[in-house]
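Backbone shapes recur. Consider a single case.
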Amino acid sequence: MKENNNKLNNTAMQVLLKALQNVYKNNFVIASCGNLEQGFYVDFKTDDSVSTNDFDKIEKAMSKVASSGERIEKIASLSNPNKYQKYALENNKNAICIKIANSFENVVNSNEIETNVNQVKYFALVNVSGSYWLNDTKNEQLTRISGVCFETQKELDDWKKYIIELRESDHRKIGQEMEIFAIDNDIGQGLPIWLPNGEIIKKEIKKFLWDVFTKEKFMFVDTPILGSKELYIKSGHWDHYKENNFPPLVMDNETYMLRPMTCPHHLTFYNLKPHSYKELPFCICEDSKLHRYEASGGLIGLERVRFMELFDVHIIAMHSQIEEVIFKLNSILNSVHKKLNIKIDRIDLSLRDKNDTEKYHQDDKMWNTSENELRRILKKLNYQAVEIEGEAAFYGPKIDFQARSNLGKMITISTIQLDFLLPERFQLEYIDKDNSKQRPVLIHLGIIGTYERFIATLLSQTKGNLPFWLAPVQVTIIPINNESHLKYCNEIGEELTKNKIRYKINDSFDRLAKKVRDSQIAKVPLEVIIGENEVSKKQVTYRKHGQKESVTVSIKQFIDLLNSLKNN
């Protein structure tokens, strides 16, 4: 897609807000607006219910505003600013006041804006959702509409084709069709239920990661999903993750928290006994269940949830081992991405915001040392990383491996984080060669992030066409006639069971065409059709997903094929 034209999209925001003002009249208050990676958004207050069904009338109102040819003029001040506009004027030194004709005034954050509304010609509204003022769940909820605006009709048409493609790769749609996960409001928003097919995918990834990290001599542990208040005060998560923590659990004068992170548990495990430099790097792994409270408006299928499982890795190392460890982790990470067919779109170096004294631990020397160390290592790895301020963890900078979701957002798939702070807070030590006590460094590794977000990305990137070894159902067996052919289908199934192949026999009374279509929708890699010829000759006729050509072989040849696919 073409890079966002911010000037044009900034203008389109104002045209949309004026159109909304015309549509909702007195039941409308401007709140804020801004740019997205592709397009723009506006937030506003209204008592009316707004849905995508209203987009047609809103777009017509936008066209009417744009065709008026009215000019956008800068003005010294707003004649009657609302509370949202007053806040923007008081807290944004770059804020500019504008008006369109005499009926519309607003605050914008950039000089980049067209002078005439008729530049807004090729646009579309994309989505409507809820949002909170200033992204704070304690504030009132607003309505958000997002849209796009382009310079030409061709760019808009290309974007619409792109959106159709994205919808086809939406993990929520694929997850429903393949029966991978479900979310039910009776259980709770953001709390996914892994259906049998989804559990198979997750278990296969777990087995793969277990094999990889066992060979690399990492230790596996299993720690509680709860932690005491004192543990998280010590780590800093009690203060720094207030907004993401579920309310504390208080019983018998004891206070516990559903853990949002595993690092405090792993560092406590390390401290159970003394360690020599010979034991370092000290490498710990865990499939850890975590709880983080996400605003309901931000919940997206498996991509953003409130209960998640993280394949969490921590390495406690000497300072002299940092480069060696990160090089090794990078090698493991690349091999895992290759096996799982994950495409990384961008690598970020996430840094602190020096002006944010609340979010980040205040130690300039620590931050400068750790950020420069990661810069140096990235250069040696020949990675052209994008430096992003304000995205570091509160305890240190990180290398983030990003993939673009089907919604166009960059999401973190893998991360390597450098941490000098938590070893201090937990008083980690090791005995050096000279018998002196030394402070190690902590390296956090998220090899695939959470299973939820990773599988969402995997489904999106592959459109559900998973590698054979990972497919929840690897073979569908379809009898043409149940009475005549089902017995032989069961015989084939027994052979598949012996060879640990996951299969499903469709013995419903649906027509053959529907059975085939169901197999295609479920993205089953191989589809077997059994008729009179196959029964009489003890053969198998199969077709690969997405292909029209069928192949007939003996059962043994078919099993050999499946075993070769399984091992690739």
Notes: Residues 196-215 form the longest helix (20 residues).
